[in-house]
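Closing statement on the HQG sub-project.
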Amino acid sequence: MSKKIIDDTSKFLSYVLRHEPQAIGLELDSEGWGDVDALISGAAKSGRQLSRELLERVIEGNDKKRFALSADGQRIRAVQGHSNKAVHLQLEARQPPAILYHGTATRFMDSINEKGLIPGSRHHVHLSREIDTARTVGQRYGQVVILQIDAQAMQTQGFRFYQAENGVWLTDQVPVDFIRAL
Ligand code: HQG
């Protein structure tokens, strides 16, 4: 199985499991789970051949562990990054590391300095413990800027933090006072 097929399938799964399940007639429940057989048959109708073996390879080999199978193997979901309105992950609030990082592009900074970090089309603002991860994320959008987030102060003031199954930290918003550009 080629790396290209695995990478293409990962992108496809991100699209349908986070954003547009309806594109292949798939239903997701509020925890983001979709039926594996329905995913395979829906994808086939739109000309994409999936198999359980391919899905398992993508899930296990994925660099960021973006997807998970249910214990019985019948359902699949994305563990974070959703924009789909039907999905509302019930994540428990957790104590974050004192400092978290967010990578973004310099061209967004005027707006960020005015409004803070907001989720945009996704359900949460995404933060990472590692500065290198933040750099990689920010580079997707242009000239990168790393923002240091005072998660400890935020938590003290009542903001909640959640951690997705793959370790990504999530919060609803980050007001300007807690952001420092490095
Ligand atoms: C920016 C990837 C203007 C924000 C990554 C970001 C992550 C603002 C963009 C996950 C703003 C949203 C999410 C404001 C925030 N004004 N721009 N007030 N507040 N922004 O893709 O964090 O590889 O929705 O800085 O690893 O870049 O797909 O969020 O640049 O975990 O698994 O608005 O996506 O994961 O972009 O990335 P995104 P993100 P995957």
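The chain has two domains: 3-78, 99-181. With this model delivered, the sub-project is considered complete and its resources will be redirected to Aim 3.
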